[in-house]
Amino acid sequence: MSYSTLVRDEAPVVTLLPGPAAISAHEWNALVSPGGFYSSHAWVAGLAHAHGPSPVLSAFSAGRLEGVVPTWTNADSTGLFSLEEMTRTLPGVVSADYLWLGTQRSTANVATITRNPAKRARILRALLEHARHLAARKGLKGVLWPYLSGPSAQEIASSHPLAHAVLHSTDAVVNVPTDGMAGLESSVSSKERMKWRRERRIFRSSCSSVEWTSLSPDVCERVAPLLANTRDKYGSPGGTAWMRRTLSGQLSSGVARNAFVALVHRGNDVTAAALFYGHGDWLYGRYWGASHAAPDYAYFVLTHYEAVDFAAQHGFRRLHLSVPASKSKTSRGAALTPLALVAVPSGATSIEGRALTFVNRRRAQDWIGAAPSAGPETLDPEWIP
């Protein structure tokens, strides 16, 4: 047997490291897929700078980094990261009973592992197996990896005999025409086109203007109170101090270099702001905030209409609007894609299969009803009722 065969067959070694700083950014980013911005080293490091590091599982094979997955704890009982709300019909599930995988509080996770198709399943299984044993040592029921695309969740779940993929939400993404809003308008009915133009016209009549800029320390100070206003409105803790700390962490990690900031000016005041991040041909919308003086339709103008034109002008082909995938987004050109979590128990008993089948089929019915134009082919056959 040759040395190359021995290296190829070497089992991956999984280690729990204290945070992203313990791993080479170059090696980490070599594993990040085109749609994996929130799994990039700079984004995860920015969170660590701002809020403290979370342990990261790393998989090495023959001395080469083959996979990374951050871990974190979560006690949310309401909101986007409430397991109770994500699964609804599964009895007795509590967020704090599980070890969570993926970037902390990210609503767009991917498997950050080798691109080599011959190795992916083995690396994923090793990471999941180590994670479930880690959960067991902590006295937790298992591990959860949320906000994965349907295909990603199925790939991850198929790598481990105890893993299950569970539909829980939908994502919203705009496929950006090369001519921006002009192209998007040409693809919809005249009724929709007139509504979009009316909203932009009302915004302009307020004597407001839009400026695109970079995320500098001065801009961070200007937008933090606006972004905190919206977070407070929807029950997120931390206020302006939390927002300033988060943006400061992005400046420290360097991820701010990927940021684009849209500002609404009204006279001498900035009344609204939206933050986007570029990665490959994706433009990710992440934060939005406004004061009481913001003009009507500022939200749609910044996060959608202006963003589509900006994306087209700068070579981005997908605009990620993220969750929740509301009707207001789909009625403005966004397409829905299913999101799922992967659950792996810490013990030998898997989650009861019939209960998961019921959850998935109920979610699939909701999905098909919400996005009939997308068609059931966007779902795995086993999820279709």
UniProtKB/TrEMBL annotation:
This is N-acyltransferase. It comes from the Bacteria. InterPro entries: Acyl_CoA_acyltransferase, FemAB-like. It comes from Streptomyces umbrinus.
